[in-house]
Specification:
Blueprint: H1 3-17, H2 22-31, H3 36-48, H4 54-65, H5 71-80, H6 85-94, H7 98-111, H8 120-132, H9 137-146
Helix pairs in contact: 1-3, 2-3, 4-6, 5-6, 7-9, 8-9
Length: 152
């Protein structure tokens, strides 16, 4: 079996376990001591069958992660996975920004289940947590107000 065939087989095995970006697949193949040319050949091979598609990966990633993370955080993670900026932007445009505000409310209600017993420190800690997660402060303050946690 030639090295190109081995590399193609390894690429298929990697993608069989989990969807990957082109950059992630290339890095894994290079770690398995395949040459850059062999890795490029394997990537072209799996792409030709539609097994590797960064645009699809980005769309799926955004649609799943938007339930838990801010769009800014998702954007950062996709960039770190080696996805081109235009594909990241296209995937984020498809996601509704209103979902982010609902996620903020969900997180606030989880972190402060009883607004009547919450103190200023609880609210500030929640705001800081949300901000660190990449949410915009204006959206956080709106969420705090909607949950009745103002007056501190």
């Amino acid at each position: 079996m030639s090295r190109n065939s081995e590399c193609r087989k390894k690429a298929l095995q990697i993608l069989e376990r989990a969807d990957r970006t082109e950059t992630e697949l290339r890095d894994r193949l290079l770690k398995k001591e395949f040459s850059p040319e062999e890795a490029d050949d394997a990537i072209a091979y799996v792409k030709s069958y539609g097994y590797l598609d960064d645009a699809r990966y980005a769309l799926h990633y955004v649609s799943y992660q938007k339930q838990f993370k801010s769009m800014r955080r998702i954007q950062f993670e996709l960039r770190n996975k080696g996805i081109r900026e235009d594909l990241v932007e296209a995937a984020l445009e498809d996601a509704a920004s209103s979902g982010e505000k609902e996620l903020i409310l969900k997180i606030i209600r989880k972190r402060i289940p009883d607004p009547e017993k919450a103190g200023r420190k609880d609210v500030e800690k929640c705001k800081a947590y949300l901000y660190r997660q990449g949410f915009r402060m204006t959206d956080i303050i709106d969420g705090i107000e909607k949950c009745g946690l103002t007056g501190f």
